[in-house]
């Protein structure tokens, strides 16, 4: 067995069971690029500070570049007995260039190294997710454009409430996704500080320059406190919280579209390209991708809760428990990216069943609140108007008709203020024309939103 990089004080090697249990290279090798870049920055700083010679520095930089190429070409052999990505790369560097490699870990610990790698990895992951969010926003926006003027029933409590323009509802999701992006942007700015040089926990007595490594890795500044730098994973909690909120937004959209694709609603027709069948029921066409989006949100939330529980009992500073942060992080990112991609794909592959939607509009007195507004315009206090319209609804329910089908005489028996102009407030098409408050579903307000998003999403 090869001696461990930390093996000096040990007389015997760890058992196979312990080795297998403790290794992380099987998954943290994902960090190889960040690990190599971090090491390059660190080595260059060591040269600058006179802690190692320029020749040693060059040997290290060239060696690291070579290892990077060998990893990328798939030739690199990852060894579980070398524990993690950091020691695999350092040991391979020693195999490759010999003595100079032994100077790379000067004034560095895996504790600051791992957390530097993870912060660098998160930066890229966040950029990737931001791109996916943007593409989904564009897909939802385009779906809205294709369905200009389409009125749908709006729901509260899943009971019919008021009419909505479909565009308005779709843009609600676009808004939510925009805040999701904002949370990630904030998170990225807050995590972009360098732990490198915090070493194990206390910093070092060697004359390093943490500002130099921070700068060369594109961090805003070095973290101020070395204990904080190696011990906290709040930036991951924040990142996974942001992902969880995205997951919840997507899950709600998934739920809505699954419902709309049902026979009972029949509003939405997913194309065959995004539907799957049943192995026993020949007639079936299921909206599986959106069900899985709903389902996978559980994983993303689970990843966050794993991390919350992981961190809650840890004393300062670094604890090996923290190695367990990586799988939930990777899983959360991989899952949220896939969820965003498939949702965009789904949005590009649905049509709305105009016939079913328009046939469904008369049900549920969607115009009742507009009728109450009519009475308010006539000077009736809103509470009284509410009561009068409630009675009109009861009357139309008893007659099996719509509010617009009640005669003026029938309405006047409820209140003498009713005049012929009430009919221009009734019926879904009339009702929706009355909305004019900022942010409402009125067509001018929605047109303003459309033009806002056209600019914001840079769609000409
Ligand atoms: N693989 C470890 C992790 O992910 C790296 C840091 C290990 N540090 C240590 N002192 N054992 O956290």
Automatic annotation (TrEMBL):
Catalysed reaction equations from the record: 2-(N(omega)-L-arginino)succinate = fumarate + L-arginine
All copies of domain Argininosuccinate lyase C-terminal, residue ranges: 366-433
Highest taxon of the lineage: Eukaryota
Biological or metabolic pathway of the protein: Amino-acid biosynthesis; L-arginine biosynthesis; L-arginine from L-ornithine and carbamoyl phosphate: step 3/3
Gene Ontology MF term list: argininosuccinate lyase activity
Biological processes, Gene Ontology terms: L-arginine biosynthetic process via ornithine
Pfam families per UniProt: ASL_C2, Lyase_1
Protein name, entry field: argininosuccinate lyase
Species, as recorded: Taxus chinensis
Organismal lineage: Eukaryota, Viridiplantae, Streptophyta, Embryophyta, Tracheophyta
């Amino acid at each position: 067995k090869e001696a461990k990089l930390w093996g000096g004080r040990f007389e015997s090697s760890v058992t196979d069971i312990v080795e297998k249990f403790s290794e992380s290279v099987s998954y943290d090798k994902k960090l190889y690029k960040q690990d190599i870049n971090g090491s390059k920055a660190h080595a260059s700083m060591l040269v600058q500070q006179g802690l190692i010679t320029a020749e040693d520095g060059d040997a290290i930089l060239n060696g690291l570049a070579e290892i990077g190429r060998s990893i990328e070409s798939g030739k690199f052999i990852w060894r579980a007995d070398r524990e993690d990505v950091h020691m695999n790369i350092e040991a391979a560097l020693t195999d490759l260039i010999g003595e100079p490699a032994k100077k790379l870990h000067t004034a560095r610990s895996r504790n600051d190294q791992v957390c530097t790698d993870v912060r660098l990895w998160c930066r890229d992951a966040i950029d990737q997710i931001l791109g996916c969010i943007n593409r989904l926003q564009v897909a939802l926006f385009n779906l809205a454009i294709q369905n200009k003027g389409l009125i749908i029933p709006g729901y509260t409590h899943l009971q019919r409430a008021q009419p909505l323009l479909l565009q308005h509802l779709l843009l609600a999701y676009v808004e939510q996704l925009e805040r999701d992006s904002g949370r990630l942007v904030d998170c990225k700015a807050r995590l972009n500080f360098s732990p490198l040089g915090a070493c194990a926990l206390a910093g070092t007595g060697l004359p390093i320059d943490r500002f130099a490594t921070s700068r060369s890795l594109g961090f805003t500044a070095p973290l101020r406190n070395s204990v904080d730098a190696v011990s906290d994973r709040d930036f991951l909690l924040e990142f996974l919280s942001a992902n969880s909120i995205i997951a919840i937004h997507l899950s709600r959209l998934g739920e809505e579209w699954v419902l709309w694709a049902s026979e009972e609603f029949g509003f939405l027709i997913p194309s065959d390209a995004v539907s799957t069948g049943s192995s026993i029921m020949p007639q079936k066409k299921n909206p599986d991708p959106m069900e899985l989006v709903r389902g996978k949100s559980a994983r993303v939330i689970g990843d966050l809760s794993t991390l919350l529980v992981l961190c809650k009992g840890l004393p300062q500073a670094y604890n090996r428990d923290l190695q367990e942060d990586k799988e939930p992080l990777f899983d959360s990112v991989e899952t949220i990216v896939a969820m965003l991609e498939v949702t965009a794909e789904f949005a590009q592959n649905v049509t709305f069943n105009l016939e079913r939607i328009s046939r469904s509009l008369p049900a549920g007195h969607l115009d009742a609140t507009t009728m109450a507004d009519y009475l308010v315009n006539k000077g009736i206090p809103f509470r009284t108007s509410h009561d009068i319209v409630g009675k009109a609804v009861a009357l139309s329910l008893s007659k099996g008709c719509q509010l617009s089908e009640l005669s003026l005489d029938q309405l006047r028996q409820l209140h003498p203020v009713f005049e012929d102009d009430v009919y221009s407030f009734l019926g879904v098409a009339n009702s929706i024309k009355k909305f004019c408050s900022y942010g409402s579903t009125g067509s001018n307000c929605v047109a303003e939103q459309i033009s806002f998003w056209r600019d914001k999403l840079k769609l000409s």
